[in-house]
Design brief:
With 298 residues, the chain is mainly beta. It is built from 5 helices and 20 strands. It is globular, with a radius of gyration of 18 Å.
């Protein structure tokens, strides 16, 4: 078992509520110059959840499950900034009010721009929710470290999800991390250059059909763990030859130039101490038994 500093982590109760679906209220234009009007970010999304395909929806930047915010009117201010930074993939979330009171969910990650925390709940629970309901997230994970691997840096990762990821220690101080997809550096787009990765995401660009097919990017599912080659996320999102970043897919494919499935960072290293290994079940739904698993719906 990987040794960590879990006993030293701070755990917050973070309060939020579902955020209404957002739209710019006008035509948007895809990477081929074609205008479109489609569902996009936000909402209590009833029929999309962790484990579902990231491709094929009649939508753009679709956030699975429930898109949560502490203050939808002030997304870049307190307390929403704290909610974004201190919510981590794998955190438990509980509905505290209304007909869905007591329903349990799991955080997938956070989406930059919309400034939403994405939480997976079962459909029966989502059907009972209101946008005025209160959701409490147990925020734990920022500051998590691997005691024996100081060069591998963790972000946005609940210790319980780290334990579930089936990471294997091998010779040379290397960790083998199961992922569904290996993504070349050239595909990483919107979000590059951010000062840090403790909130938000960045996108796997899907405008080049040949590259998408070559790397099987169109097979990605929401909640997949993916490896980003030659990307160093220690101090922001940057290209560095030989670096490896592991992230979790938190929103669907997109039509706009420079966009595609969004990835929240979980692990990163400036050298090749992380070795991705392909596993079709490397998805939060399959590991935690939520959402849509490879064995069928839960």
């Amino acid at each position: 078992m990987l040794k960590t500093n879990e006993t030293k982590l701070v755990e917050f109760l973070l309060q939020c509520q579902p955020g209404q679906p957002k739209t710019r209220g006008t035509w948007e234009v895809d990477h081929q110059g074609i205008p479109f009007l489609l569902p996009a970010i936000g909402g209590i999304t009833l029929n999309v959840q962790a484990g579902d395909p990231a491709f094929g929806w009649a939508g753009d930047h679709i956030e699975p499950g429930v898109s949560c915010t502490a203050d939808t009117m002030k997304p870049f201010e307190h307390p929403n900034v704290g909610l974004q930074i201190f919510s981590c993939a794998g955190n438990t979330a509980t509905v505290a009010t209304g007909e869905a009171k007591g329903a349990q969910g799991r955080v997938l990650g956070h989406h930059g721009g919309s400034e939403h925390v994405i939480v997976n709940f079962e459909r029966d629970d989502k059907e009972k929710m209101l946008y005025s309901d209160t959701i409490i997230i147990r925020g734990k994970g920022q500051g998590l470290k691997l005691s024996d691997y100081p060069d591998i840096v963790l972000f946005n990762l609940d210790p319980s999800l780290l334990r579930a990821m089936k990471i294997r220690e091998v010779e040379g101080g290397v960790l083998e991390v199961p992922v569904t997809t290996i993504v070349p550096a050239v595909c990483m787009g919107s979000g590059i250059g951010s000062a840090h990765v403790a909130k938000g995401d960045y996108d796997i660009m899907t405008s080049d059909a040949d590259t998408v097919k070559e790397y099987g990017i169109d097979k990605i599912r929401l909640g997949d763990f993916v490896a980003l080659l030659d990307h160093d996320n220690r101090y922001g999102r940057a290209y560095r030859k030989g670096a490896i970043t592991i992230g979790i897919v938190i929103h669907s494919d997109c039509l706009e130039a420079g966009h595609g499935p969004g990835v929240t960072t979980l692990m990163t290293c400036a050298s090749s101490l992380i070795r991705p290994v392909i596993d079709p079940a490397a998805n939060i739904a399959d590991l935690l038994g939520i959402g849509t698993t490879l064995k069928g719906n839960n």
